[in-house]
UniProtKB/TrEMBL annotation:
CDD domains found in the cross-reference section: cupin_MmsR-like_N
Pfam families: AraC_binding, HTH_18
An annotated Gene Ontology molecular function: DNA-binding transcription factor activity
Keyword tags: DNA-binding, Transcription, Transcription regulation
Gene: msmR_1
Stored PANTHER family: ARAC-FAMILY TRANSCRIPTIONAL REGULATOR, HTH-TYPE TRANSCRIPTIONAL ACTIVATOR RHAS
Record domain HTH araC/xylS-type: where: 191-289
InterPro entries: AraC-bd, Homeodomain-like_sf, HTH-like, HTH_AraC, HTH_AraC-typ_CS, Tscrpt_reg_AraC-type_HTH
Protein name, as recorded: AraC family transcriptional regulator
Amino acid sequence: MVRKVGLTDSVGFACLEDLQLSNSYMWGTAISLDYCGREDCIKGWKFGPYVRESYVIHMVKKGKGTFTIAGKTYELGPGQAFIIRPGEETTYRADDDDPWSYMWVGFHGYRAEDFIEAMGYVKGSPIIKIEQMDTCAECINKMLEYSQITRINEVKRMSALMLLFATIMEDNASDAQESDNIEYPSKIYVKAAVDFITEKYMNKIKIDDIADFIGISRSHLTGSFKKEMGVSPQEYLINFRLEKAASLLRSSKEQINIIAYQCGYEDSLSFSKAFKQKFGMSPKSFRNLEVELETNDAKFGHEASKL
């Protein structure tokens, strides 16, 4: 089985996507790059309504457009950026007279909300400013440049992503400073739980074990997790184990039942069922999956090839 990581590079449009198929170092980590790109939009170009599975930040270099979320429409221009969170239905549209040129980056990870908060975003206010737009553009261009499916390029892309995040944080430091100086108990509990899972995921642990280790009730832990992560601790534990399993399937030649055991599954059938539910294929098919870079010279070329 072959899956394509798509690189489209044409006049006015460039996009590197489906990187989650090739990431080897980033499974189960704090942040992972899914896709990125840039576009000089045509007049009136509209995208949506659409619901994303990743977090996505769009940065407007020049021109104007509108962004609609939760029934509210925002007008944006150069030096502004809007955030889309997973599960949010959004629509955005280029201006009829002065269409925008923008860049975007899509990502996921258990620390995604922490990064977003540090950039100055707050829920209910999806717009922030960006003063160092040229630096942000360099970061996006570097990610596009490091398109080959190698571990070195994977790390280079992540380096460019971290520099992008740091640049946006720096531009909005005064906006985020107050929240940076406040410690929320729920965050402390969640961090302790994540550290526990990271160290003990291969063992037969239960959510009660994690709560007991931290010293809070299971219901308190669940509430803290849902507040900070958007998922329950049980969902996080399952997802973490499966992503670790995916990484081992790619990087080792161990038998699948051994990998299942190493990731906390004593029953290989239960493991296979859970793995297929998450990744859409069996562990065996995932191990045999070949990821190739497909280069296109037209917008939507990669998407059309998947149909």
